Amino acid sequence: MLHSRILDAAGIDDPGLRASYLRCRELHAHHGRTYYLATRLLPAPRRPYVWALYGFARYADEIVDDLTVTASAGQRADRLAQWSQLRLNELRAGVSEDPIGRAMVDTVATWGIPVEHVAAFLDSMRTDLTVHQYATFDDLLGYMHGSAAVIGLQMLPVLGPLTPAAAEPAMALGIAFQLTNFIRDVAEDLSRGRLYLPLEDLEEFGVDRADLERGVFSPAARDLIRFQVERTRLWYDRARPGIDMLAPAGRECIRAALVLYAGILDQIERVGYDVLRGRVGVPRGTRARVGSGAYLRARRAWPADSRRPNQSHQVQVHSTSAKPNSRSSTGA
User: Do residues 139 and 281 both lie within one domain?
Assistant: First the structure.
């Protein structure tokens, strides 16, 4: 079986640990199809660790978004707080018996990922249970430091950074990905009572949240979404130089992920920015074209790759801010 061979290549032999990685892979493949496609461009020995990082994040997100009749906001908050504290304790202790946590503990230990990055992410998940809109883009950036930027930092050791300077583009890419999701998923987020478009932007363009909730897509709303798309493209521009700051084995994965995710913005533009009428995605033909070309380039870098991180390439980021030094007219 292909997935078993990938685990073999990574030197992951323990049956319980293998089961944990495979569970994370299922979450990744089901919920993150575009990014899952991109991670197939990594050498086999590195792929399970991306499964673990994505699966862990997705599982936490599912707790937050559990909208079943029996799960009130308070119950979800309690469940998330308990689950988060248990997982953080396990990460610090270096051992877990949890079906998801076991793979995450192994990944953090293998690649030297700072536990504070995981803690920052879990803090942002708790925020989603109490904060349902953001007044300014700076406020949204504060939230995205934990929900998106530190995800880039978690991924970085697995990808093989060649310089500490790779940290800033990695955070920018995490933010670009999440801003793309926010734009694409406006209707879905509103159905959960959340809005990730800054209220200052709604006011500037003359858009009322209540109209968006009713599905009213006005010319003003079109201008608002166009503005969000332009701002997000600038974050992709900030991230793009980071690709060449990675070891060759990690470049094609991130290049493909960037191209495919930025392609969602192109699709939003093609439907006239109307994100209220349905969820857009990158066409299969585009995904296949980008993936096939990247696969051929990636294969050339695989033979030189090894499982364990090169200690000289480890990047430690302690207090780097995800916020830009200055805001342009589009806020990036």
Answer: yes
